[in-house]
Write a structure and sequence with these properties.
mainly alpha; 0% strand; 445 residues; flat
Length: 445
């Protein structure tokens, strides 16, 4: 009985997981991308014995100092390049998919997961056949692609906080007097965000300007600049030039900028005396560091998932085909609503059931021809291609620092990139506030 129960449980889990993957291809692609990151992580730390046995890799670099850093970077770049080539190929294949009836939707984007896993493995192994100069060229291209990925994340964040604010305000207006609780909730979250900004800033001064440490001016200036940006964003959102903007998005963007400040400072090398957190983490267990790294990787997967699914921001206009096919779809819906009157005679129940079933199947198939996809498949895979580049930069410290085991995104290059992302986020938000006033004839909705 116990073995039978275990078998049934396994069968149930298999059916559920298959159904989840069938209904939500985004989850399956996210799992595959997470697997690519885990492979890159393992190869970075343990691929040296393998790469030393590949002659065309070692011979091309015979004039270089082949240390652990070089082998680790080569492994990460090649795994990242394989993932990038796989997703960019899928992005090109999925160009023009607009309706669920497209064969590429059924056989490539959804379904055939074992086949796609095998193809991904081939793409992952392919860059290990490339000469070093091609891989180094990809590494420089990955720096640019990673920048685009970060910019897209900023745009998604700004859209999310504005949509959150508009949704709660609209709900409050619809409910009338009873909707005041939504405005109170919005104000409560705003105050909570500002409290978090001040609290985190206090910890940043404490952690990254330790007592007795000299030459920590950069850390102090960066934290102070973040606070000044938070004040500037808040005041600008209340200024008339912002055309009735809300304080809530400013609070959330300020909180995100403060997080970026923390992320930049904690990426400083651990032997830097002003990095107080690194001194504390040297005593942390390997499992603790590994868990922290897994959380970082999971956050990248989620960011890519959200960005790839949000294609509304990057759509310039409604497709012409949608307007052209709307009458045909409406006619099919009207036909489906009608009864099956006009049949000669009254058939028996079995024949009537069969005829009606076939008719419904034909109508459902016809309707599927005009059922639009819920997001842009090509853009979704493009985001994962850019995220593959970003992972290469995280794993190698943007190609400038040796990354210790169980740690990623450490080095001065990472510090400067995140500092730039902080400033770009603030500038983008300021632009969203003043652009409608500068260009009143344009629609920024």
């Amino acid at each position: 009985m116990a073995s039978m129960a275990g078998y049934l449980a396994c069968q149930a889990c298999t059916c559920v997981s298959r159904e989840v993957l069938t209904q939500s291809a985004r989850v399956a692609w996210s799992v595959l991308f997470f697997l690519a990151m885990i492979v890159a992580w393992i190869m970075r730390d343990f691929a040296k014995p393998l790469l030393e046995k590949i002659p065309w890799i070692v011979i091309d670099a015979a004039h270089m100092d082949l240390d652990d850093k070089w082998f680790g970077q080569q492994a990460v770049y090649r795994v990242s390049m394989g993932s990038f080539l796989f997703f960019i190929t899928m992005s090109c294949i999925m160009l023009g998919v607009k309706y669920r009836s497209d064969k590429r939707d059924k056989y490539l984007h959804h379904g055939n997961y074992l086949l796609k896993l095998g193809v991904w493995l081939l793409f992952t192994a392919l860059p290990f056949l490339f000469p070093n100069n091609i891989v180094e060229g990809y590494a420089w291209m990955a720096r640019i692609g990673s920048g685009f990925f970060l910019v897209i994340q900023m745009i998604i964040l700004l859209d999310f906080v504005q949509a959150w604010n508009d949704s709660w305000v609209a709900t409050a207006e619809e409910e009338g007097e009873g909707g005041q609780r939504w405005l109170y909730a919005l104000m409560g979250v705003t105050l909570l965000a500002y409290s978090a900004v001040l609290t985190l800033a206090g910890f940043l001064y404490h952690w990254f300007k330790p007592s007795g440490a000299e030459g920590c001016a950069f850390n102090v200036v960066l934290v102070t600049l973040t606070l000044l940006l938070a004040v500037t964003l808040s005041l600008l959102s209340l200024h008339p030039v912002s055309n009735g903007a809300s304080i809530f998005p400013a609070a959330m963007v300020s909180l995100y900028c403060t997080y970026l400040c923390f992320s930049a400072l904690q990426s400083e090398p651990k032997d830097y005396e002003c990095n107080g957190i690194a001194q504390r983490m040297t005593a942390a267990s390997g499992s603790t560091l590994a868990v922290g790294m897994l959380v970082t990787l999971a956050s990248v997967v989620y960011a890519a998932f959200r960005a790839g699914s949000n294609t509304r921001l990057f759509t310039l206009a409604t497709s012409v085909d949608d307007h052209q096919n709307a009458p045909e779809r409406a006619a099919l819906l009207a036909e489906e609503a009608q009864t099956s009157a006009g049949l000669d005679g009254v058939p028996d129940d079995q024949t009537a059931t069969r005829v009606l079933g076939e008719a419904n199947t034909r109508k459902e198939g016809a309707l599927d021809d005009f059922t639009p996809v819920t997001y842009n498949y090509s853009f979704f895979h493009l985001i994962f291609a850019l995220a593959s580049m970003y992972i290469a930069m995280l794993m190698t410290g943007w190609g400038s620092e040796v990354q210790e085991k169980d740690r990623i995104d450490v080095g001065w290059a990472s510090v400067y990139v995140k500092t730039g992302a902080l400033c770009c986020t603030a500038v983008l938000y300021c632009w969203t506030l003043i652009a409608p006033s500068l260009f009143p004839d344009r629609d920024f909705s």
